[in-house]
Amino acid sequence: MNEMPRRLQVLQAIVEDYVSSREPVGSKALVERHQLGVSSATVRNDMAVLEEEGLIVAPHTSSGRIPTDKGYRLFVDSLSEVKPLSAAERRAVQALLDNADDVDEMMARTVRLLSQLTHQVAVLQYPHLDTATVRHLEFVALAPHRVLVVLILSNGKVDQRVLATEQDATDEQLLALKQVFLTHLDGLTPAAAPAVLAVVPTQVPEQDAGLARSLAHMLDQLIAAGREDRIIMAGTAYLARSTGDFPLTIGPILEALEEQVVLLRLLTEMEQDVRGLSVSIGSENSGSLADTSVVAASYGPGSVAKLGVVGPTRMDYPGTMAAVRAVARYLSRILSQ
Questions:
Q1: Looking at the domain 134-227, which fold is it?
Q2: What phi, psi does 188 have (nearest 5°)?
Q3: pLDDT digits (tens, 9 = 90+) for 224-240
Q4: Are 76 and 312 in contact, with CB atoms under 8 Å apart?
Q5: Contact of 227 with 132, CB cutoff 8 Å
Q6: For the chain, what is the mean pLDDT?
Q7: Which of 188, 199, 297, 298 has the maximal Cβ count within 10 Å?
Q8: Closest Cα partner for 139 from 181, 174, 186, 183?
């Protein structure tokens, strides 16, 4: 075995041991736990070279070494393939996502599942609905001066809000207005709907025009909300349990996740590699996320939106990458049906 592949093998062993134990790794432990085929002295020499190259570092006065961000990057880039999920994990993904009633429930289930599979914070960028079309509407009188407005899209997404009206609306009036709106909106994309909504109130009897304008405005709000960039997440408790992996408080990280702007920009800018994954490690991230790693994959129509996990740089990269890619692919398959 020539020197470079062996040093890479030593680096891989250090990463694996450190991720599993959180303890700095020494040459003796590497020789005992891994079939490296060389002496402790040779491994110590390899570790010295890896340290000179900035791939590992000695924390404080420890005799062992831990990977640097650069070391994790080389480790991730050297993974020739992403291992598949186990049969049990695949069944869990299928069982959970196949039984979701609508898109919102499926997205919520997806982040919970990904968090449970990886023991990290799972994040999901909501899919843009520009490729979906309006499939159905409902206007339901709930109480005096209250109408429930329901918008259903072709991808199964259901949005609803309660509209406060100036006058009572009868069931017959709402049914007639629903038919007018549906006639104009059925099959339209969210991008095309606003222009049509501006016209619909002019197509109804004058006594219904005020209510029609209010309904059109509410539908416009529902459609606009569906087109906004937003993130849902699960598993922030896992981050709280990993405080030992962060040099400072996790407060700024939690704030960045809650504010979403930094994370949305990062997810949008991350480019996928040939394995269908995006991995951003430690200092490659800016600001509050510079002590974390993000593993993400695109999913859904046009593969524009992303889902992934955020966690400490001391992460099980092979397992996390496998889970993220598998869940993204399965979610894409469901959304395309």
A1: Enolase-like; domain 1 (3.30.390)
A2: -85, 150
A3: 776 666 789 999 989 88
A4: no
A5: no
A6: 87
A7: 297
A8: 174
pLDDT (0 to 100) of residue 124: 94
25 beta partners: 65
Angle subtended at Cα 96 by Cα 229 and Cα 323, rounded to the nearest 5 degrees:
70
Model's pTM, two decimal places? 0.74
Token pair listed for 19: 């991720």
Over residues 91-145, the pLDDT tens digits come to 888 887 777 777 788 889 999 999 999 999 999 988 765 667 888 999 999 988 8
How many CB atoms lie under 10 A from the CB of residue 273? 11
Neighbours of 3 (CB within 10 A): 11
Q: Which residue blocks in 119-208 are alpha helix, DSSP H?
A: 171-185, 193-197
What is the dihedral angle through the alpha carbons of 264, 269, 274, 278, rounded to the nearest 10 degrees? -40
Report domain extents, the chain: 3-77, 87-126+229-335, 134-227
For residue 63, report the phi and psi dihedrals to the nearest 5 degrees: -80, -15
End-to-end CA distance of the chain: 49
Written as six digits, the tokens of 255 are: 């704030």
Q: DSSP H helical segments within 167-235, as ranges? A: 171-185, 193-197, 209-227
Helices and strands, number each (H, E), in the chain: 13, 10
CATH of region 87-126+229-335, choose from 1.10.260.40, 3.30.450.40, 3.90.1180.10, 3.40.50.12780: 3.30.450.40
Q: What pLDDT digit, counting tens, does each position of 282-337 carry? A: 999 988 888 899 999 998 766 778 999 999 999 999 999 999 999 999 888 887 76
Distance CA 91, CA 83 (A): 16
Q: Domain 3-77 classified CATH 1.10.10.10?
A: yes
Q: Check for a shared fold between 3-77 and 87-126+229-335.
A: no
- Per DSSP, the three-state class of 266 is helix
In whole angstroms, what is the distance from residue 234 CA to residue 129 CA? Answer: 22
**Positive or negative CA dihedral for 66, 68, 69, 70?**
negative
Sign of the torsion formed by the C-alpha atoms of 86, 87, 88 and 92? positive
CA distance 93 to 122: 15
